[in-house]
Amino acid sequence: MPRHNGWVSAAKLAASVVAIVAISGVAVAAFAAVDLVKTAVSAPTLTLENEELLEGVPDIGAMDGGLTFLLVGSDKRPADGSFGDPEEDSAVLNDVTMLVHISQDHTHVEVVSFPRDLLVEVPECPDPADPGGEPLSALSSVKINTVLSYGGFNCVAATVQQLTGVTIPVGGIVEFYGVAALAEAVGGVEVCIAEQIDDDYTGIHLAPGMQTLSGMQSLQFLRVRHGVGDGSDLGRISNQQVFLSAMMRKLQGEGTLGDPVKLYSMAKAILSNMSLSSALQSPPVLISIARAVQDVDLSKVAFVQYPTVYTWDQSAVEPSDSAALVNAALQADQPIVLDPAATGEAEFGTGGDPATSAPVPEDGTEGAGEETGEETGEEVAPTAPEGALPSDVTGQTAAEVRCSTANEG
Fold it and tell me: Of all helices (H) and strands (E), which one includes residue 286?
């Protein structure tokens, strides 16, 4: 490759990485890999129904307006990066499901994580094995982490879109090994451990204090559930937020984004572990996204756990009343402000009937066509909250340094 072209590619790569650093640590090298893949191998392409929303993104300069996309972490079993018995659990699961929202004015970003055991309503979806044939039937009260196996990425996107009422035009799937490789490529990610963590399921053992995680150990940390928090998936999400925030701080604080060698190392590390929707495979689009969010303050990047309550039999979770407030904030393009008391270890109650889904406006405009409820007699959807959300909406900002706690139960 000529030297000039190499530096052009490096510049594009840097811009792509900057975009995602302000959004989600998991996707940093994934988007960088898209630019590199243009001169290497072709990555799988995902196609979503609403991708035309990105047609107006300029080739130069910051994109106009905001953007919402779906990021799915695939737990492919049996696979080198999986834990558990591959003979008993051989499905392709979306063990991590995140909705990322960039505000219209590019001043704040929200990353909403949905618990894997969250019960959702799955709409009718195209069959990925037969796109032109009969669609897959709608499902009721299924765990969200099974939707990828049932109907593919498009079905996950449609499900989250129906749940939140937010249009999702683009997204991507990253396999867990890609995150482990990324952590190694950047020289490890330093996280705070409050208490000794011992988890025989993943094989991770960490002493209290600041610990630098790299490679397989970082993957174990992201996957650990029994050894942290309350031993549930809800505790695992808080653990993942600790890791992602630490990764973002490192990338912004150690000059990684200005080092082409490190950027290419990051991209190569996960090149084979990412699939993106077609609208995100354009380098100009990635650069435009990068320029839109590269200056977002880390204190304005909120990692939020979708608020839930346990079902009556404690076997799953369902949206709590506060979930409607999170939906309303996303639909209204308002920042999600966390209650200072929300530490990520909130108590979880027991729910009754599952919460109803938030409708996506037919015109694709978030929050459009809302009913007042006076004429229809239907329950009025909550308006976007001003100020901090209730304390059961937990999470942290990327600027906060929090520690992982052991499961002492």
Answer: helix 283-293
